[in-house]
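Follow-up to my earlier ticket, as requested here are the two runs.
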Amino acid sequence: MRLLHQKTMLEVNNLAETIAFYTENLGFTCCAAFPDVESPTWAALERDGIELMFSVRNAHSPVENPTMTGALYFTVKNATEAWELLKDKARIEYPIEDFDYGMREFAIRDCNGYLLQFGQELEGGEPEM
């Protein structure tokens, strides 16, 4: 088996709100919507070659509210710049910090409660003092 791509698809309760959050706050573009952009049940959002897909919750899903126990982790060129752009646009999970494992990162929650982490590898893999 050869894997060609990995695309994330997340269920949401309000797709219009999700599209607005990702386009207005994170700079994504809605590149596809089904059946149309006015009342989508599925949408694909893209930025810098990263694609995320969202769908309304399947009527047959046993889950009452969409959840994810993990996180979407975005590697960025400049975590400090990303922090300044996003810190006032979403609920902060943890502020920007240099970690012992050699990353500068922070985390926010999107409008659905999904954890979005943004990290930059520190030069030499060590936190700055």
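Run two:
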Amino acid sequence: MLTRRIIPCLDCKDGRVVKGVQFQGLRDAGDPVELARSYEQQGADELVILDVSATPEGRRTAHHTVEAVRAVLSIPLTVGGGVRTVDDARALLEAGADKVSVNTAAVTSPELIDELAARFGVQCTVLALDAARPSDGRGPDFEVVIRSGKERTGRDAGAWAREAVRRGAGEILLTSWDRDGTRSGYDLEILRSVCAAVNVPVIASGGADHAGHMVEAFAVGVDAVLAASIFHDGDTTVAALKHELAAVGVPVRIESTEQNP
């Protein structure tokens, strides 16, 4: 049985890790290099860096942050934020990313996914899909939102995930916009819907507070869970979560070098 992955996320702005609710009320959460090193020592399976201000500010991801993190990191690294072209993606891969995630630019120019998959392979191409429940009760059950949640598209999340996979996305990083930063649990209905729509790994994001939430997400079919606040705030560690998950039968990678809970 494939092991399930635990992935800390570093939302970065101006070279610092930040955290808020739906990218609002951002507070400083630490140095990305120090946190990356700590999370790998705790047993993180992968790491995600998202430059949360790159798209709103119309710029590329800060490459120096990626280079600095890669210098202390040996586990797989996914980087996103502000990726609009093949050249943007190439620069991140050259800076040390193993995979590149695209969000807003993929929605506005879907052919970008084809181009990235053709140039770098599906294993490097991640669709970051932010989904929200409709605010007015109309439209799709789960609507794609872009530009850091500022714009609703009217597109169905499951249909967009299927199209992205057909175009070459090898993984889906699925964030419930309504749950982001709330620590109220993953939106299991959104996860179930997208997992049923695609045949590639799905990473659950948005709302994690404890191991029980992760167990629920794995039960509906995700391959990995992403979390930020619970790690940044020091409420738990990757190692502690893995031991809790293993105790209830979730297959996770636990090595003797990992920090004990």
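The only thing I checked on run two: The chain has a mean pLDDT of 90. Let me know what else you need.
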